[in-house]
Design a protein that fits this description.
257 residues, Rossmann fold, seven-stranded mixed beta sheet, 8 helices, 37% helix, globular
Length: 257
């Protein structure tokens, strides 16, 4: 008898977080460098593979940048999101998908917070046409080492779960094989960003939909804990007073035979 996946993430918190991020993205100079990097990477991969999809499903494309680029190449683009807006399909990735038959499915930054990632990849494969390509990008293991250290300093002797567990390259490759995708490829690339304060990092994470949606709510940090976190973050600063934080972007790709 199959077992249900553990409930690590709260679906309603996940939807609320994405709605907040989409609202924040309407502000001038909103942080969007992670999504921009994912969009650029998908376009580069398609060019390298010489793939010119006729119909594509794009999930999590908050600004529509990838959808516009694919449409400019002649593709018919369907947009979807766990928190859909006008013109998008609502999509719960770990349940059977309401659409299918796509030459390309590109998923940007949503699979890192689904409870059943193997199931989500299986459903994505089912939505591909034979010979179709899946490219899924998300934040992966190795992200935010400075913030993780700051949170440990904040909690002291009683650390709480505040940051998401993340998938590494090796596990990602295994998930692709488990989903039945051919020629599976999992790779990761780093992106370093410098911040003047812990508050600046948190603001960027909120704007890009990367704050916690864990089902188990951690206790409040409190003023003393926040002060310890700020001190730890500042202690990692360079000589110019800015702290370098690391993001790891994991990309999974494979084909439906």
């Amino acid at each position: 008898m199959s077992q249900s996946p553990p409930t690590i993430f709260a679906p309603q918190r996940r939807i609320a977080l994405r709605r907040r991020a989409r609202a924040l993205q309407t502000r001038p100079n909103a942080a969007r460098y992670l999504l921009d990097d994912m969009v650029e990477d998908v376009i580069e991969r398609l060019a390298f593979l010489r793939v010119e999809p006729r119909n594509a499903l794009v999930v999590g494309d908050i600004h529509g940048a990838l959808g516009r680029a694919l449409a400019a190449q002649g593709a018919e683009v369907t947009r979807a999101d766990p928190a859909p807006m006008a013109g998008e399909i609502g999509l719960e990735e770990q349940l059977p998908w309401p659409v299918g038959g796509f030459d390309l499915i590109a998923i940007l930054g949503t699979l890192d917070s689904v409870n059943d990632l193997p199931g989500a990849l299986i459903h994505a494969r089912g939505a591909l046409a034979p010979g179709g390509l899946l490219i899924a990008s998300m934040v992966g293991a190795g992200c935010l080492p400075v913030l993780r250290g700051a949170m440990l300093s904040a909690d002291g002797e009683r650390p709480a779960a505040r940051l998401h567990p993340m998938v590494d390259v090796r596990s990602g490759a295994g998930l692709l094989q488990r989903a039945g995708l051919a020629n599976p490829v999992a790779d990761a690339r780093g992106l370093d960003v410098r911040f003047g304060s812990l508050a600046g990092l948190i603001a960027d994470l909120r704007a890009q939909g990367l704050t916690s949606v864990l089902a188990s709510t951690a206790p409040p940090i409190g003023k003393a804990g926040l002060a310890r976190a700020r001190t730890a973050f500042a202690a990692a600063a360079d000589a110019d007073g800015r702290t370098r934080e690391h993001f790891e972007i994991l990309t999974l790709s494979g084909w439906r035979q």
